[in-house]
Design brief:
With 348 residues, the protein is α/β, with parallel strands linked by helices. It contains eight helices and 21 strands. Helix 3 (79-93) packs across helix 4. It starts with a strand and ends in a 15-residue tail after the last strand.
């Protein structure tokens, strides 16, 4: 009997877990469908992921990447990879039989789905919500939760023993019971916690500052059959970073996000972090725009707070934290910013 990819097109809840277990018991692999997609987009996604077509023995999941830099890819994760991720993360977090996970992020993305697979593999208690609801989260009675920065602000953080933060850059005033993670769909969720790789995970920073990762929780291949790993099992992330003096990994950002203005390197996330506490900035995205004089201009798209900020106030605020060349030379006032489902900015 041929193993196939089967879609789970149901909201989060006990029914989702039952369907996932049924698919695995039959030897098939599961593809969680994003419940927010309109019917045409959902149909296109099912076609792109080749739902109904064969998978290899041992394949457990196909997860669509968030698509922040292009069209989503289907990441194939095996049962062995899922088990490795579950065991390594649970050891790092000190998970015990007294803990209970809360899954409240989209299950079509690895940050939400990994909570479910982690709990199932380790036998840890699990509560699944059909979506993020601040009242339901704050009254869930759980001890562990995975969140992104945009949902963190709506949660009573003290209710949890540990909050796992992924997705976009965490706020500078994150709660003391939170752990920041670095990873991606291809790594089966976070593999570096607070700058320290999980057990069994190798991290290398190349001469060009690109981060490479290797470990047993990495993908087998993409759904189209391409394998992004080299002969030694290393995955080039496309992220740039460096090692800090204390041995922790610092991630600077996506290789393509780097702004080069007047010969100086500017990381958008560093400028965004500097503007996070500006009184007239509710949300901000920084990007580079081509310019004949400077090569690129640093431009900030801003969702205003109670008042609309001026360019002068924005530049002055950034200069309190960074050199003057990092200060935006132009601002754009917008009503909202484009983000993926897990809160990553779509700079493109």
């Amino acid at each position: 009997m041929t193993n196939r990819l089967v879609a789970i097109d149901t909201p989060g809840g006990p029914g989702f877990v039952d369907e996932l277990q049924r698919i695995w018991d039959a030897g098939d692999a599961a593809f969680p469908v994003d419940q927010r997609l309109p019917p045409p987009a959902k149909a296109a996604m099912l076609t792109a992921m080749r739902v109904g077509e064969p998978v290899e023995p041992g394949d457990a999941l196909v997860i669509a990447t968030s698509g922040s830099t292009g069209e989503p890819k289907g990441v194939v994760l095996t049962h062995d990879a899922i088990a490795s991720s579950a065991e390594a993360t649970s050891r790092r977090l000190g998970v015990t039989s007294d803990d209970r996970w809360l899954a409240c992020l989209p299950l079509s993305h690895v940050g939400g789905l990994a909570v479910v697979t982690r709990a199932l593999h380790t036998g840890t208690g699990l509560t699944i919500l059909p979506g993020f609801d601040d009242v339901a989260v704050n009254t869930s009675g759980t001890t562990l939760v995975s969140l992104v920065a945009t949902t963190l602000r709506r949660v009573d953080c003290e209710r949890f023993r540990t909050i796992v933060l992924g997705g976009s850059r965490p706020p500078s005033d994150r709660p003391p019971n939170s752990v920041t993670t670095y990873g991606m769909t291809e790594t089966g969720s976070g593999v570096v916690y607070d700058g320290v790789p999980l057990d069994g995970v190798d991290v290398a920073v190349d001469d060009d500052d690109q981060i490479r990762l290797r470990g047993p929780m990495l993908l087998r291949c993409y759904r189209d059959g391409t394998v992004p790993l080299d002969a030694d099992g290393w995955f080039p992330t496309g992220d740039l970073g460096c090692w800090l003096d204390d041995g922790r990994l610092q991630v600077e950002g996506r290789q393509g996000d780097l702004i080069i203005t007047g010969g100086e390197n500017v990381w958008p996330e560093a400028v965004e972090a500097a503007l996070a506490d500006h009184p007239d900035v509710a949300d901000v995205m920084v990007r580079g725009v081509a310019d004949p004089e400077w090569g690129q201009l640093v431009v900030a798209a801003i969702v205003p707070g109670e008042s609309v900020p001026t360019l002068e106030s924005i530049r002055s605020h950034v200069k309190q934290h960074h050199p003057g060349f990092m200060a935006p030379k132009r601002i754009e006032i917008v009503t909202s910013l484009p983000r993926t489902a897990i809160g990553k900015l779509r700079r493109a």
